[in-house]
Amino acid sequence: MLTPEYQLTDLDGDGQQELIWKEGGWIGVFTMKDGQVKQLASGRDVKLCEGNIIAVTRSYLDDNKTYCYYRIVDGNAVLVDYLRYDKDM
């Protein structure tokens, strides 16, 4: 049985710590908003980058990929950049 790993850190400087939870190959980023737990990002390829940007890579159909980059603003994951790689294009 794998032991989950976690880290609490304030990603947007609002005084509210976000939870980064890793269990096996899965990673989730959560916050509290209006007294409720809110999931900001999750998946098998989630990384915290410089400037507290959350990078989420998703693979689909024949090794094509999307790369999404989010910044946390007011308890929300706001998309700041998106790249889609399609090997046939």
State mean pLDDT (0 to 100 scale): 92
Number of strands: 8
Shape: globular
Structural class: mainly beta
- Please list the strands of the largest sheet in the order they lie side by side: 1-2-3-4
Q: Give the low-confidence spans.
A: none
Question: Sheet with the most strands?
Answer: 4 strands, antiparallel
Distance linking N and C termini: 42 Å
Discrete helix count: 0
Q: Helical proportion? A: under 10%
Q: In angstroms, what is the radius of gyration?
A: 14 Å
The H/E string reads EEEEEEEE
Beta-strand percentage? Answer: over 45%
Topology:
Blueprint: E1 5-9, E2 18-23, E3 26-33, E4 36-43, E5 46-49, E6 53-60, E7 64-73, E8 76-85
Antiparallel strand pairs: 1-2, 2-3, 3-4, 5-6, 6-7, 7-8
Describe this structure as you would to a colleague.
- The chain is built from no helices and eight strands.
- It has strands at 5-9, 18-23, 26-33, 36-43, 46-49, 53-60, 64-73, 76-85.
- The strands form two sheets. Strands 1-2-3-4 form a four-stranded antiparallel beta sheet, with no helix packed on it. A four-stranded antiparallel beta sheet has the order 5-6-7-8, with no helix packed on it.
- The radius of gyration is 14 Å and the shape is globular.
